[in-house]
Batch of 3 targets.
Target 1
Amino acid sequence: MGMLNWPDSSRAVRRQLLLLLVCLFVVSAATVPTYAQSASEPTLPATEPLASPIWALLLEPTALRSQPDDAAEAFATLRPLAPLQVLGYAGDWAYVYNPRTKGTAYVASALLGAGEAPSPYAEADPPPVEVELDRNGWVAEDTPLAFYPTPDPTAAYTDMPAGAAIEVTAQVQGDDGQDWYRTADGDYVPVSAVQFPSPPATPAFSATAPVRPRQTFAGNWIDVNLSLPARLTAYAGSTPVRSMLVIIGRGPLATPTGTFSIMRRVANETMDSSTIGIPRRSAGGYYLTGVLFTQYFLPTGQSIHYNYWSANWGYPGSHGCLGLSYSDAAYIWSFAGVGTTVSIHY
């Protein structure tokens, strides 16, 4: 192979280098890969803005989402009657402005009803926090839920029925000089309206169970005797360590009998009757937040949990669950775990 002979003229050299660069550019452009959208990736609908935004109200507890998609990130779950301003639509989703957070999100259009512009309190800056809290309680009587801590009735947007659970995150001073609680949803209620359970008592261990079970199990396990008054007893092997009265299922939703085991545990649960086929607003419907120490033993929803809305200890009063007092539920939470045997019988 002969040696490459470079031209003597510098002008010829520049022309040859320029031609080489052009060739390299053409070759590299031809080899750049192109990418097409995967057929499996969903295409989100485009958001069409409204010429004139309108106000709406939520019809039921609803999660606000980052995109018009049920799988999108959930920002928060708002209560029924919470006001939202509809800015546009994306398919079956509404693009809304939340006056409480001054942010935007998406919500299914079917969950919105006609509404009016809320009170200016909805956009008021919150007062400074005096005490940070993390407590679960309930309202002792029907109580207005307010956008802002003030007795002005225009600040309230819905009512909490007596006995409704409430999660308190802070104490603030209202514009009336009184103390108010801020809820986990950013709403406000007077301190005087909220009650909290007494702290768990030191476990009072029992030497004997009311009725010795026909069968025992190794390790820690739970025996439930449905004969009235119904009783739940914690056992270590064949030794009873604590026994307590328990609320059981009633009517067609009686607590099932059999040998089960704890499947999963939720320290602070929200219970929704619609998940077991009972509409929330129908007879027997419910939507309960702050259900502490919940331990499920059946995939159909039956569980052992703290029952703050009833005190019918030892008798039927639930939809199949086993309801306990705060101290008893707290004890069973520390005593049991996933896999703990639960034996239920008459």
Note: The domain at 220-345 is CATH 2.40.440.10 (L,D-transpeptidase catalytic domain-like).
Target 2
Amino acid sequence: MAALTIKDIAKLCGVSTSTVSRAINNETGINKETKERILETIAEYNFVPNNSARNLKMLDSNTIALLIKGIDNQFFQGMLHTFEGELNKIEYSFVVHAVGENQDEIAVAAELIKEKKLKGIIFLGGGHVENTDDVMIPLGVPYVRCTGAIEGRKLTGGCSITIDDRKESEKAVSYLIEKGHRRIAIFTAPDHSVGRLRLEGYKDALAKHGIPFDENYVRYSKVTDKAYSMENGYLLGKSLIEDGTNCTAIFAVSDNMAMGVYKAIYEAGKRIPQDYSIIGFDGLDMTRYYHPSLTTIQQPVEDMVKASIKQLMKAIDGQELKEHQILYEGTLLERDSVIAL
């Protein structure tokens, strides 16, 4: 019988050759059970790694890519520090690549994989909500979608990790309603992911409390990769005030937009929360220092980052992902930007 090769061991264990190499070289970034299974198989078949197998790690960089749609969004900027810290713990490096609003993120990812010899991809932002049951993204490497909205879909070969945008938006608007507000505007984006889901949550809250939906209270930002920016929040706030729309509260679907709304309100000589109550979404640290401090829905960034890395490492180690969608709850941070009527 011919001597087994590292490829044979990988096939027997149902993992990649790079995973076998990490087990042989006692590297980090490999699941304990997977490592034990590989070492047991090696012992069973009396496999002796040759020098080329031991040197695989020299050719096999532990690098993943973070593909970000909306890289100027401060929410994503804040996540990068957490990603860096968690990936350093398992001796992985990462490259950051911006994806434009009109770019095909799958095509961008495929090109990066060729150039960088990546182990995996984490997508930040983007996503869609078509009601298909199953989605295959043909990348050839494991991937995770973190914060990108996926509604009613199973990702074959990958995993979606995000806050429940619709449910948490309902929570935000219900909070305003419970404070006595019934004329509530929403500033969102005309996209097919986060903006749409948060608009649906807004509608859910109105229906739950018997308030008719009024399209006039829905304001959409420009279609750009900066749809959730301070600038767009400012422009929407300015337009709402100038056209005399009679509302007492505004739900800005991002904290960045909320900051722009603040400027528009103050320029018009109005007050927060006496004239307009404001609630945001994301829980950016800087919102504590707005004047007044912003009431917002805080996303569990650290938990989502850790879960994204954990799921990606499982897939890289050749494990089948049992969870294809993981939804997190947000936390309502009650501050000073909302007044009871």
Note: The first helix runs from residue 6 to 13.
Target 3
Amino acid sequence: MQVEAAGFTREDLAKYPFLKQTAEYIKPLDLQIEDLTSAGMDQILRRTEERINEAILERRITRNTKNLNIEILSYPVALLLVAATENTLIKKRYALSEAKQAAADLVAEPKEKILKVALDFDWKIQLTQKENNEAPTEFIVHFTDYLRNTSHLHDKKWKLTNSILSSGNVYLNKREVARLLEEEIRRRVEKRLEVKLPKYPEDIILVAQRIKKLAEETIGQTEIEEMPKIVVQAAFPPCINALYAEAASAHHLSHIGRFTLTSFLLNIGMTPEAVNEMYKTFSDYNERLTRYQIEHIAGERGSATRYTPPQCSVLQTHGVCRNRDELCRRIYHPLKYYKLKQAAVNPS
């Protein structure tokens, strides 16, 4: 009854488990992480692992509404398990998958349901009055909500100047609102994945390890491994040292050289802002384009895929591999070189 009064049914919470109302729905259960390994939780854990695996493999999470309680409960448990992997890429992949699935489902919903979901994110939004609006739009969204959720969308259609704007409001159709809600949902899920408990039960750690193994097999071990947080230039591979020196001297870099250097620096912990600063001395520097390229490589735009440098064999083919040393002969990837060398240079 409480769920219905708030405007969301149990079916809604199963489809859109990130809603604030979901927390209210499961609160009486007082679910603790220790409870996950207790008898009777098998079905929930099984469904939880299914949704995480699908996120990793397919970048979506299809809804299973045969048992609504299991479906609803599997979401907060999934957040705990994904957080337990302590892996940034898995967290981003999961959040993106939840968001994309929800956005796809929202397109098929009545506009009134979409409105309620948008209000859950505190949007200033209302339905258009058709008799007073000739444009094929169904929603009026305040420009601040619009700008917040289009900042990473670079199709020209999302530019405010290309939108129907009146009195500080933007007129949008269902598909456009669903796309902007995808951004809101992704950020909310990512925020909830920031939780870190002091200790996870052993059974939960084992499940998290299975998830990481699947991610390594699917995405690639090099991509999934976390790099040390402190950038150690002394651990750079010779090829990266050469590219870094050229960039510092504002020398022209080939396309693959620039991509290799940028993706390497981002993967070892340098921020997009710091990488952008490095390129500012280049004669062909264009701030908007450079920022877009860096953020795209970092996985902050587009498909949210974080790119890694090419393997050593590819760099050799393109003449980027230079000054090979003894360690180079034992590894196949610049990031693997860095991780091994960093451990030797800074064993603590």
Note: The two ends are 56 Å apart (CA to CA).
